[in-house]
Write a structure and sequence with these properties.
This protein is an alpha+beta fold. It has a single domain, classed as Reverse transcriptase/Diguanylate cyclase domain (Alpha-Beta Plaits, 2-Layer Sandwich), CATH 3.30.70. 44% of the residues lie in helices and 25% in strands. The strands form two sheets. The chain has a five-stranded mixed β-sheet with strand order 2-3-1-6-7. It has a two-stranded antiparallel ribbon with strand order 4-5. Helix 1 (22-29) packs across helix 2 and helix 2 packs antiparallel against helix 3 (74-88). The longest helix is centred in the N-terminal third of the chain and has 19 residues, at 31-49.
Length: 160
C-alpha cells in the first residue's frame, strides 16, 4: 500500500480527519449520496494538498489521513488544517437541498523513529480531542492526552 511507503521518513506530520454528521447523511439520503459526498471530500483534499509534499488517503468509513513526508513548520500544518475545515464547511447540494458537514481534525508531528501506526494513532487521539471540544475544529497531539478517555469518547461517538 502506498500509504506505508516512506514510513521511516525522518520528520513529517499526519493530519487525521473524521467527517462530523456523516452517518446522518448516509441515513437520510442513502449510501449512493454518501459515496458521492466522500468522493467530493477526497477531491477537495487533493486540491488542498496538490502543491505540498503531502498525500491524502481515505482511511476508512468517513475518515481521511493526510501524510506529510517532510518537515513543515507547525504553523503551515495548522494552516492546512484550517483550510480543510473551511473547505469542508461549504454546503453541498444533494437532491436540491444544501447539506453541510464539517469535520474534526487531529494533527501529529514526528521527528524520529516511529511506526506509521503509532503516529496515526496519535493523530486519531488528537482528532477525538477536537470532537470532544465541540467538533468542526482541529487539535494537536499532546502526550497528556489520556488514551482511556479518548477511547471511551470514541465508543460514545459511535453510538451517536
Amino acid at each position: 500500500m502506498a500509504f506505508y511507503e516512506d514510513a521511516k521518513a525522518e520528520s513529517g506530520s499526519i493530519i487525521f480527519l473524521d467527517l462530523d454528521g456523516f452517518k446522518n447523511l448516509n441515513d437520510t439520503y442513502g449510501h449512493e449520496i454518501g459515496d458521492y459526498y466522500l468522493k467530493g471530500v477526497a477531491l477537495k483534499l487533493i486540491q488542498i494538498t496538490a502543491e505540498l509534499s503531502a498525500t491524502p488517503y481515505r482511511f476508512g468509513g468517513d475518515e481521511f489521513v493526510i501524510k506529510i513526508c517532510k518537515s513543515m513548520l507547525k504553523e503551515k500544518v495548522i494552516n492546512i488544517a484550517k483550510q480543510i475545515l473551511a473547505e469542508l464547511k461549504v454546503p453541498v447540494i444533494i437532491k436540491s437541498e444544501d447539506y453541510k458537514l464539517s469535520c474534526s481534525i487531529g494533527v501529529s508531528f514526528y521527528k524520529e523513529i516511529f511506526t506509521i501506526d503509532d503516529i496515526i494513532h496519535q493523530a486519531d487521539l488528537a482528532m477525538y480531542q477536537a470532537k470532544r471540544g465541540g467538533k468542526s475544529q482541529y487539535a494537536l497531539y499532546d502526550e497528556k492526552l489520556n488514551y482511556v478517555d479518548c477511547r471511551r469518547q470514541r465508543s460514545a461517538d459511535r453510538n451517536m
